[in-house]
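Reviewers of the previous submission asked for a worked example of the structure-prediction workflow described in the proposal, so we include one complete record here. The input consisted solely of the amino acid sequence. No template or homolog information was supplied to the procedure at any stage.
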Amino acid sequence: MSLTANGKANLATSPKTSISSEPIIIRRATLKDAPEMGRVGGRVYYDTPLTSWLWPHRAKYHAQYERHWIERRLALMLNPRNESYVACSSSGQIIGAAQFARLGDDAGAWKRIREIGVLRRVFMWVAAWVFWGYCKVRWWLEGGDKTQNKEAVETFASWCRVDGERYWGSHEERASRWHCQSLVLLPEWQGKGIGKKLMAVVMEKAQRDGVIIGLEASAKGEGLYTKLGFELLGRFTGEAGAVEDVGQGGMMIWYPEGYKKEASSEM
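From that input alone, the workflow returned the following structure tokens.
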């Protein structure tokens, strides 16, 4: 599984639909792409049980709901450990996006950070703080977030911390990894191999670095990752599982070829 030298990947043609015959371009995302990346994510997850629980008033305050997604995309992109990619149709429309982070303190992780350059790292650090302050002030001026169930958001964050420590933090050997922070694809473009092409980007990097890939799979996304060779480490906490489809989704891991797996898959 690989991308062409110019970053393009063509879907197999099909006489049934014009969508399936369009050439798809996978490219590195820029900060200008963040708004559309956010809108794609907001649309993809709009009707999921988790979204309905966290943002019950998203229909009434749709602009705020979209802004959550856009701000998150930008915040991730301003981290020097992050790499973001978009999938575009032949017309240039962003139809999907993926964001990955190179975690750890190993030589490979620091080599990548150094390659970014000191000036760019300083710019990203300053921009991240300015953006954080801007977001705080803007939400304050609007009288706070009207889309959220604040108690649900705090509860969900606590579940994430528990699972993060259980599956990643308590396993020193998993600290050095690429982590898939987000993968979204518009519904009408799903099932055409585009998600695999986006994941191919990080799988090639992980194979080159000799490190694992970790991610949190939704109930719907678990099938894709399984086909790509990811293994399930464990389901989300019982409470989180009750919000999503019970018994589906969870923490998943991918091992590069030749990687010495852990002696135990204990969760």
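The chain has one domain: 8-254. We consider this example representative of the routine output the project will generate in years two and three.
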